[in-house]
Amino acid sequence: MDLAYLAEWANLLIRWLHLVAGIAWIGTSFYFIGLDNQLDPPRDGNPRVTGEQWSIHGGGFYHKQKYAVAPERLPEKLHWFKWEAYWTWISGFSLFVLIYWGSASTYLVDPQVLDMAPWVAVLVSAAMLAGGWVVYDLICRSTWAEDETKLSIAMVGLLVVAAFVACHLFSGRGAFLQVGAMTGTIMVANVAMVIMPGQKKMVAAMQAGQEPDPKYGRWGKQRSVHNTYLTLPVLFLMISPHYPMTWSHPFNWVILLAVALAGALVRQYFVSRQFGRNPIILPAAATAVVVGLMVVLRPAPAPSLAGVEVPTMAEVQAISANHCAGCHAARPTFEGIAVAPKGVMLETPQQLRRWAQAMRQQVQTEAMPPGNLTEMTAEERTKILAWIAAGAPAQ
Ligand code: HEC
After folding, report:
1. Which of 47, 128, 317, 380 is the most exposed, having the fewest neighbouring CB atoms within 10 Å of its CB?
2. Where are the domains of the chain?
3. What pTM, to 2 d.p., does this model score?
4. Which tens digits make up the pLDDT trace of 170-198?
5. Ligand 1 pocket at CB < 6 A
Protein backbone atom coordinates (compact mmCIF):
# COMPACT_ATOMS: atom_id res chain seq x y z
CA MET A 1 0.00 0.00 0.00
CA ASP A 2 1.51 3.29 -0.99
CA LEU A 3 1.80 6.35 1.16
CA ALA A 4 -0.69 8.52 -0.73
CA TYR A 5 -3.34 5.81 -0.34
CA LEU A 6 -2.70 5.53 3.39
CA ALA A 7 -2.82 9.33 3.65
CA GLU A 8 -6.30 9.19 2.10
CA TRP A 9 -7.40 6.85 4.91
CA ALA A 10 -5.74 9.00 7.53
CA ASN A 11 -7.64 11.96 6.08
CA LEU A 12 -10.97 10.12 6.32
CA LEU A 13 -10.46 8.72 9.83
CA ILE A 14 -9.08 11.92 11.35
CA ARG A 15 -11.82 14.00 9.73
CA TRP A 16 -14.44 11.63 11.10
CA LEU A 17 -12.97 11.95 14.57
CA HIS A 18 -12.73 15.73 14.17
CA LEU A 19 -16.42 15.97 13.33
CA VAL A 20 -17.52 13.73 16.20
CA ALA A 21 -15.33 15.49 18.78
CA GLY A 22 -16.33 18.91 17.43
CA ILE A 23 -20.03 18.09 17.64
CA ALA A 24 -19.60 16.85 21.21
CA TRP A 25 -17.63 19.95 22.19
CA ILE A 26 -19.80 22.58 20.56
CA GLY A 27 -22.88 20.71 21.70
CA THR A 28 -21.77 20.89 25.34
CA SER A 29 -20.69 24.50 24.91
CA PHE A 30 -24.07 25.52 23.47
CA TYR A 31 -25.84 23.50 26.12
CA PHE A 32 -24.08 25.11 29.07
CA ILE A 33 -24.31 28.65 27.69
CA GLY A 34 -28.02 28.07 27.10
CA LEU A 35 -28.47 26.57 30.56
CA ASP A 36 -26.67 29.47 32.21
CA ASN A 37 -28.79 31.99 30.35
CA GLN A 38 -32.06 30.28 31.18
CA LEU A 39 -31.71 29.61 34.89
CA ASP A 40 -34.70 30.48 37.05
CA PRO A 41 -34.39 31.92 40.56
CA PRO A 42 -34.00 29.01 42.97
CA ARG A 43 -36.93 27.88 45.09
CA ASP A 44 -34.86 25.81 47.43
CA GLY A 45 -33.44 27.24 50.62
CA ASN A 46 -29.73 26.79 49.91
CA PRO A 47 -28.33 30.34 49.76
CA ARG A 48 -25.41 29.22 47.62
CA VAL A 49 -27.69 28.16 44.80
CA THR A 50 -28.19 31.08 42.46
CA GLY A 51 -30.25 29.49 39.74
CA GLU A 52 -31.96 26.31 38.73
CA GLN A 53 -33.68 24.71 35.81
CA TRP A 54 -36.04 21.85 35.30
CA SER A 55 -35.97 20.11 31.98
CA ILE A 56 -37.16 16.96 30.31
CA HIS A 57 -35.06 15.00 27.83
CA GLY A 58 -34.95 11.45 26.57
CA GLY A 59 -37.88 10.42 28.74
CA GLY A 60 -36.51 11.75 32.02
CA PHE A 61 -36.83 14.82 34.23
CA TYR A 62 -33.69 16.71 35.20
CA HIS A 63 -33.17 19.26 37.92
CA LYS A 64 -30.04 21.37 37.56
CA GLN A 65 -28.80 23.90 40.06
CA LYS A 66 -26.04 26.44 39.68
CA TYR A 67 -23.92 27.50 42.63
CA ALA A 68 -22.45 30.98 42.75
CA VAL A 69 -18.75 30.14 43.01
CA ALA A 70 -19.10 26.70 44.64
CA PRO A 71 -21.12 24.39 46.88
CA GLU A 72 -20.17 24.08 50.51
CA ARG A 73 -18.49 20.73 50.10
CA LEU A 74 -16.80 19.29 47.06
CA PRO A 75 -19.03 16.53 45.70
CA GLU A 76 -17.53 13.07 45.60
CA LYS A 77 -17.84 12.81 41.87
CA LEU A 78 -17.43 15.81 39.61
CA HIS A 79 -17.82 15.65 35.83
CA TRP A 80 -15.31 17.67 33.83
CA PHE A 81 -15.63 18.72 30.22
CA LYS A 82 -12.35 18.94 28.41
CA TRP A 83 -11.63 15.95 26.20
CA GLU A 84 -14.24 17.04 23.66
CA ALA A 85 -12.25 20.26 23.18
CA TYR A 86 -8.84 18.60 23.29
CA TRP A 87 -9.73 15.90 20.78
CA THR A 88 -11.29 18.45 18.47
CA TRP A 89 -7.99 20.31 18.43
CA ILE A 90 -5.77 17.21 18.22
CA SER A 91 -7.74 15.85 15.26
CA GLY A 92 -8.13 19.26 13.62
CA PHE A 93 -4.46 20.10 13.94
CA SER A 94 -3.49 16.66 12.57
CA LEU A 95 -5.77 17.18 9.60
CA PHE A 96 -4.33 20.63 8.99
CA VAL A 97 -0.78 19.22 9.11
CA LEU A 98 -1.70 16.31 6.86
CA ILE A 99 -3.36 18.45 4.20
CA TYR A 100 -2.21 22.07 4.40
CA TRP A 101 1.34 21.50 5.62
CA GLY A 102 1.81 18.09 3.99
CA SER A 103 0.80 19.45 0.57
CA ALA A 104 1.63 23.10 1.19
CA SER A 105 2.45 23.75 -2.46
CA THR A 106 -1.05 22.58 -3.41
CA TYR A 107 -3.17 24.01 -0.62
CA LEU A 108 -1.32 26.73 1.23
CA VAL A 109 0.81 28.52 -1.33
CA ASP A 110 -0.52 30.41 -4.30
CA PRO A 111 2.29 32.04 -6.29
CA GLN A 112 -0.19 34.64 -7.53
CA VAL A 113 -0.71 35.77 -3.95
CA LEU A 114 2.84 35.34 -2.72
CA ASP A 115 5.56 33.13 -4.11
CA MET A 116 6.77 31.32 -1.00
CA ALA A 117 8.70 28.10 -0.64
CA PRO A 118 6.37 25.49 0.89
CA TRP A 119 8.53 25.13 4.02
CA VAL A 120 8.44 28.89 4.57
CA ALA A 121 4.66 28.81 4.26
CA VAL A 122 4.50 26.04 6.88
CA LEU A 123 6.69 28.02 9.27
CA VAL A 124 4.63 31.17 8.80
CA SER A 125 1.43 29.20 9.26
CA ALA A 126 2.74 27.64 12.51
CA ALA A 127 3.92 31.03 13.79
CA MET A 128 0.48 32.49 13.11
CA LEU A 129 -1.26 29.63 14.95
CA ALA A 130 0.83 30.22 18.05
CA GLY A 131 0.98 34.01 17.66
CA GLY A 132 -2.79 34.34 17.38
CA TRP A 133 -3.25 32.74 20.78
CA VAL A 134 -0.46 34.74 22.42
CA VAL A 135 -1.85 38.09 21.22
CA TYR A 136 -5.43 37.17 22.08
CA ASP A 137 -4.47 35.98 25.55
CA LEU A 138 -2.42 39.14 26.21
CA ILE A 139 -5.39 41.30 25.25
CA CYS A 140 -7.69 39.33 27.56
CA ARG A 141 -5.25 39.73 30.45
CA SER A 142 -4.66 43.44 29.80
CA THR A 143 -6.57 46.32 31.34
CA TRP A 144 -8.57 46.48 28.12
CA ALA A 145 -10.42 43.39 29.22
CA GLU A 146 -12.05 45.33 32.06
CA ASP A 147 -14.17 47.20 29.54
CA GLU A 148 -16.50 45.00 27.46
CA THR A 149 -16.62 47.46 24.55
CA LYS A 150 -12.86 47.89 24.38
CA LEU A 151 -12.37 44.15 24.57
CA SER A 152 -14.87 43.53 21.77
CA ILE A 153 -13.15 46.13 19.58
CA ALA A 154 -9.77 44.51 20.24
CA MET A 155 -11.16 41.06 19.37
CA VAL A 156 -12.69 42.26 16.11
CA GLY A 157 -9.42 44.08 15.33
CA LEU A 158 -7.47 40.90 15.87
CA LEU A 159 -9.74 38.97 13.51
CA VAL A 160 -9.47 41.69 10.86
CA VAL A 161 -5.68 41.64 11.03
CA ALA A 162 -5.57 37.83 10.95
CA ALA A 163 -7.88 37.68 7.92
CA PHE A 164 -6.01 40.42 6.08
CA VAL A 165 -2.57 38.95 6.74
CA ALA A 166 -3.55 35.34 5.98
CA CYS A 167 -5.26 36.30 2.72
CA HIS A 168 -2.16 38.22 1.61
CA LEU A 169 0.20 35.36 2.43
CA PHE A 170 -1.61 32.18 1.46
CA SER A 171 -3.91 30.81 -1.22
CA GLY A 172 -7.51 31.86 -0.61
CA ARG A 173 -8.47 28.40 0.50
CA GLY A 174 -5.39 28.04 2.68
CA ALA A 175 -5.97 31.47 4.22
CA PHE A 176 -9.55 30.65 5.23
CA LEU A 177 -8.45 27.39 6.83
CA GLN A 178 -5.53 29.16 8.49
CA VAL A 179 -7.84 31.70 10.13
CA GLY A 180 -10.24 28.88 11.06
CA ALA A 181 -7.39 26.89 12.62
CA MET A 182 -6.13 29.97 14.49
CA THR A 183 -9.56 30.67 15.90
CA GLY A 184 -10.10 27.02 16.79
CA THR A 185 -6.72 26.99 18.53
CA ILE A 186 -7.68 30.05 20.57
CA MET A 187 -10.93 28.36 21.57
CA VAL A 188 -9.22 25.17 22.72
CA ALA A 189 -6.42 27.09 24.42
CA ASN A 190 -9.12 28.96 26.34
CA VAL A 191 -10.21 25.61 27.72
CA ALA A 192 -6.72 24.23 28.32
CA MET A 193 -4.91 27.32 29.56
CA VAL A 194 -7.60 29.34 31.36
CA ILE A 195 -10.82 27.48 32.08
CA MET A 196 -9.29 24.17 33.23
CA PRO A 197 -6.46 25.62 35.37
CA GLY A 198 -8.95 28.00 37.00
CA GLN A 199 -11.33 25.18 37.80
CA LYS A 200 -8.48 23.08 39.16
CA LYS A 201 -7.52 25.93 41.49
CA MET A 202 -11.11 26.24 42.64
CA VAL A 203 -11.26 22.53 43.41
CA ALA A 204 -7.85 22.61 45.13
CA ALA A 205 -8.99 25.49 47.33
CA MET A 206 -12.07 23.54 48.36
CA GLN A 207 -10.00 20.46 49.13
CA ALA A 208 -7.86 22.65 51.39
CA GLY A 209 -11.02 23.74 53.16
CA GLN A 210 -10.94 27.27 51.72
CA GLU A 211 -13.48 29.27 49.79
CA PRO A 212 -12.46 29.31 46.07
CA ASP A 213 -11.57 32.68 44.57
CA PRO A 214 -14.51 33.82 42.41
CA LYS A 215 -12.16 35.46 39.89
CA TYR A 216 -11.40 32.06 38.34
CA GLY A 217 -15.08 31.58 37.70
CA ARG A 218 -15.30 35.02 36.07
CA TRP A 219 -12.26 34.46 33.87
CA GLY A 220 -13.52 31.06 32.80
CA LYS A 221 -16.92 32.49 31.99
CA GLN A 222 -15.41 35.32 29.89
CA ARG A 223 -13.43 32.85 27.75
CA SER A 224 -16.39 30.55 27.48
CA VAL A 225 -18.52 33.44 26.17
CA HIS A 226 -15.83 34.29 23.58
CA ASN A 227 -15.85 30.68 22.47
CA THR A 228 -19.57 30.72 21.94
CA TYR A 229 -19.39 33.69 19.53
CA LEU A 230 -16.55 32.08 17.62
CA THR A 231 -18.30 28.76 16.97
CA LEU A 232 -20.41 29.75 13.97
CA PRO A 233 -17.63 31.67 12.18
CA VAL A 234 -15.19 28.79 12.76
CA LEU A 235 -17.61 26.22 11.41
CA PHE A 236 -18.03 28.29 8.27
CA LEU A 237 -14.27 28.50 7.81
CA MET A 238 -13.98 24.73 8.23
CA ILE A 239 -16.46 24.01 5.44
CA SER A 240 -15.31 26.88 3.24
CA PRO A 241 -12.98 24.75 1.04
CA HIS A 242 -16.13 23.43 -0.66
CA TYR A 243 -17.15 26.95 -1.66
CA PRO A 244 -14.45 28.52 -3.85
CA MET A 245 -16.73 31.49 -4.59
CA THR A 246 -16.03 32.71 -1.05
CA TRP A 247 -12.23 32.53 -1.03
CA SER A 248 -11.33 33.05 -4.66
CA HIS A 249 -12.47 36.69 -4.67
CA PRO A 250 -9.73 39.39 -4.73
CA PHE A 251 -11.19 40.83 -1.51
CA ASN A 252 -11.55 37.43 0.11
CA TRP A 253 -10.45 38.77 3.51
CA VAL A 254 -13.43 41.13 3.58
CA ILE A 255 -15.72 38.26 2.62
CA LEU A 256 -14.28 36.13 5.41
CA LEU A 257 -15.05 38.91 7.87
CA ALA A 258 -18.55 39.46 6.50
CA VAL A 259 -19.47 35.79 6.87
CA ALA A 260 -17.94 35.73 10.35
CA LEU A 261 -20.07 38.74 11.23
CA ALA A 262 -23.22 37.03 9.95
CA GLY A 263 -22.36 33.96 12.04
CA ALA A 264 -21.73 35.98 15.19
CA LEU A 265 -25.03 37.87 14.70
CA VAL A 266 -26.92 34.61 14.45
CA ARG A 267 -25.21 33.31 17.58
CA GLN A 268 -26.09 36.54 19.37
CA TYR A 269 -29.69 35.97 18.36
CA PHE A 270 -29.68 32.46 19.88
CA VAL A 271 -28.29 33.92 23.08
CA SER A 272 -30.87 36.74 23.18
CA ARG A 273 -33.65 34.20 22.71
CA GLN A 274 -32.34 32.36 25.73
CA PHE A 275 -32.90 35.53 27.72
CA GLY A 276 -36.46 35.64 26.44
CA ARG A 277 -35.79 38.48 24.00
CA ASN A 278 -36.48 38.35 20.31
CA PRO A 279 -34.30 40.95 18.55
CA ILE A 280 -35.37 40.12 15.03
CA ILE A 281 -32.96 42.78 13.79
CA LEU A 282 -30.07 40.35 14.36
CA PRO A 283 -31.12 37.58 11.95
CA ALA A 284 -32.37 40.31 9.59
CA ALA A 285 -28.92 41.91 9.60
CA ALA A 286 -27.25 38.52 9.10
CA THR A 287 -29.58 37.83 6.17
CA ALA A 288 -28.78 41.25 4.70
CA VAL A 289 -25.05 40.48 4.92
CA VAL A 290 -25.52 37.12 3.20
CA VAL A 291 -27.75 38.56 0.46
CA GLY A 292 -25.16 41.32 -0.04
CA LEU A 293 -22.49 38.65 -0.44
CA MET A 294 -24.64 36.75 -2.92
CA VAL A 295 -24.84 39.87 -5.04
CA VAL A 296 -21.17 40.79 -4.72
CA LEU A 297 -19.94 37.26 -5.42
CA ARG A 298 -22.25 36.49 -8.33
CA PRO A 299 -20.23 35.05 -11.21
CA ALA A 300 -19.13 37.71 -13.64
CA PRO A 301 -21.10 37.57 -16.86
CA ALA A 302 -18.87 35.97 -19.43
CA PRO A 303 -19.10 38.25 -22.46
CA SER A 304 -15.66 37.04 -23.45
CA LEU A 305 -17.29 33.75 -24.42
CA ALA A 306 -19.40 35.38 -27.15
CA GLY A 307 -16.81 35.25 -29.87
CA VAL A 308 -15.00 32.18 -28.62
CA GLU A 309 -15.15 29.16 -30.85
CA VAL A 310 -16.52 26.11 -29.07
CA PRO A 311 -13.66 23.63 -28.83
CA THR A 312 -14.05 20.02 -29.91
CA MET A 313 -14.19 17.18 -27.44
CA ALA A 314 -10.69 16.19 -28.47
CA GLU A 315 -9.42 19.64 -27.53
CA VAL A 316 -11.24 19.57 -24.20
CA GLN A 317 -9.81 16.13 -23.49
CA ALA A 318 -6.32 17.41 -24.30
CA ILE A 319 -6.67 20.39 -21.94
CA SER A 320 -7.97 18.12 -19.21
CA ALA A 321 -5.16 15.67 -19.80
CA ASN A 322 -2.65 18.48 -19.29
CA HIS A 323 -4.30 20.24 -16.39
CA CYS A 324 -6.81 18.01 -14.65
CA ALA A 325 -6.43 14.31 -15.33
CA GLY A 326 -3.05 14.09 -13.62
CA CYS A 327 -5.14 14.01 -10.46
CA HIS A 328 -8.66 13.37 -11.75
CA ALA A 329 -8.09 9.95 -13.26
CA ALA A 330 -8.78 6.31 -12.49
CA ARG A 331 -5.04 6.06 -11.87
CA PRO A 332 -3.76 9.49 -10.94
CA THR A 333 -0.17 10.20 -11.88
CA PHE A 334 0.25 13.35 -9.81
CA GLU A 335 2.50 12.70 -6.84
CA GLY A 336 0.64 12.41 -3.57
CA ILE A 337 -2.76 11.78 -5.18
CA ALA A 338 -3.81 8.15 -4.77
CA VAL A 339 -7.43 8.22 -5.88
CA ALA A 340 -9.38 10.68 -8.02
CA PRO A 341 -10.20 13.59 -5.66
CA LYS A 342 -13.90 13.60 -4.70
CA GLY A 343 -14.37 10.76 -7.19
CA VAL A 344 -14.17 13.29 -10.02
CA MET A 345 -12.52 11.68 -13.08
CA LEU A 346 -11.93 13.79 -16.14
CA GLU A 347 -10.50 11.45 -18.77
CA THR A 348 -13.17 10.09 -21.08
CA PRO A 349 -15.77 12.16 -22.99
CA GLN A 350 -18.51 10.64 -20.82
CA GLN A 351 -16.75 11.69 -17.64
CA LEU A 352 -16.04 15.19 -18.91
CA ARG A 353 -19.68 15.69 -19.85
CA ARG A 354 -20.93 14.26 -16.58
CA TRP A 355 -18.80 16.66 -14.52
CA ALA A 356 -19.13 19.66 -16.84
CA GLN A 357 -21.11 21.85 -14.42
CA ALA A 358 -18.80 21.06 -11.52
CA MET A 359 -15.84 21.84 -13.78
CA ARG A 360 -17.32 25.22 -14.70
CA GLN A 361 -17.42 26.32 -11.06
CA GLN A 362 -13.85 25.14 -10.42
CA VAL A 363 -12.37 26.51 -13.64
CA GLN A 364 -14.11 29.88 -13.46
CA THR A 365 -13.16 30.60 -9.87
CA GLU A 366 -9.65 29.26 -10.58
CA ALA A 367 -10.05 26.93 -7.63
CA MET A 368 -8.74 24.17 -9.92
CA PRO A 369 -6.07 23.21 -10.60
CA PRO A 370 -5.16 23.88 -6.96
CA GLY A 371 -2.77 26.82 -6.79
CA ASN A 372 -2.79 26.59 -10.58
CA LEU A 373 -0.10 23.95 -10.16
CA THR A 374 -0.27 22.90 -13.78
CA GLU A 375 -0.15 26.52 -14.98
CA MET A 376 -3.41 26.50 -16.86
CA THR A 377 -3.67 29.60 -19.07
CA ALA A 378 -6.58 32.05 -19.21
CA GLU A 379 -7.12 30.99 -22.81
CA GLU A 380 -7.47 27.34 -21.83
CA ARG A 381 -9.94 28.31 -19.12
CA THR A 382 -11.99 30.28 -21.62
CA LYS A 383 -12.06 27.28 -23.94
CA ILE A 384 -13.35 24.95 -21.25
CA LEU A 385 -15.98 27.52 -20.23
CA ALA A 386 -17.07 28.03 -23.85
CA TRP A 387 -17.45 24.29 -24.25
CA ILE A 388 -19.58 24.05 -21.10
CA ALA A 389 -21.63 27.13 -22.07
CA ALA A 390 -22.41 25.43 -25.39
CA GLY A 391 -23.92 22.52 -23.46
CA ALA A 392 -20.76 20.37 -23.28
CA PRO A 393 -21.18 18.85 -26.77
CA ALA A 394 -19.91 15.29 -27.23
CA GLN A 395 -18.13 15.95 -30.50
C1 HEC B 1 -2.95 18.58 -8.29
C2 HEC B 1 -4.11 17.78 -8.40
C3 HEC B 1 -5.34 18.36 -9.07
C4 HEC B 1 -5.44 18.90 -10.32
C5 HEC B 1 -4.34 19.06 -11.34
C6 HEC B 1 -6.83 19.24 -10.49
N7 HEC B 1 -7.52 18.93 -9.38
FE8 HEC B 1 -9.54 19.12 -9.09
N9 HEC B 1 -9.36 18.44 -7.21
C10 HEC B 1 -8.18 18.13 -6.61
C11 HEC B 1 -8.43 17.87 -5.21
C12 HEC B 1 -7.38 17.46 -4.19
C13 HEC B 1 -9.80 18.04 -5.01
C14 HEC B 1 -10.56 17.91 -3.73
C15 HEC B 1 -10.60 19.25 -3.11
C16 HEC B 1 -11.03 19.18 -1.71
O17 HEC B 1 -10.40 18.49 -0.91
O18 HEC B 1 -11.99 19.87 -1.39
C19 HEC B 1 -10.36 18.39 -6.30
C20 HEC B 1 -11.70 18.62 -6.50
C21 HEC B 1 -12.25 18.90 -7.75
C22 HEC B 1 -13.66 18.97 -8.02
C23 HEC B 1 -14.78 18.70 -7.02
C24 HEC B 1 -15.02 19.91 -6.19
C25 HEC B 1 -15.93 19.63 -5.04
O26 HEC B 1 -15.71 20.25 -3.99
O27 HEC B 1 -16.84 18.81 -5.15
C28 HEC B 1 -13.80 19.30 -9.34
C29 HEC B 1 -15.08 19.47 -10.10
C30 HEC B 1 -12.46 19.45 -9.86
N31 HEC B 1 -11.55 19.20 -8.89
C32 HEC B 1 -12.17 19.81 -11.17
C33 HEC B 1 -10.89 19.99 -11.66
C34 HEC B 1 -10.61 20.47 -12.98
C35 HEC B 1 -11.65 20.87 -14.01
C36 HEC B 1 -9.26 20.48 -13.11
C37 HEC B 1 -8.45 20.93 -14.30
C38 HEC B 1 -8.71 22.22 -14.78
C39 HEC B 1 -8.70 20.00 -11.87
N40 HEC B 1 -9.73 19.72 -11.00
C41 HEC B 1 -7.36 19.83 -11.62
C42 HEC B 1 -6.94 18.01 -7.18
C43 HEC B 1 -6.65 18.41 -8.47
Report:
1. 47
2. 3-37+82-296, 303-389
3. 0.85
4. 999 999 999 999 999 999 999 999 999 99
5. 106, 241-242, 323-324, 326-328, 334, 337, 341-342, 344, 346, 355, 358-359, 362-363, 368-370, 373-374, 376
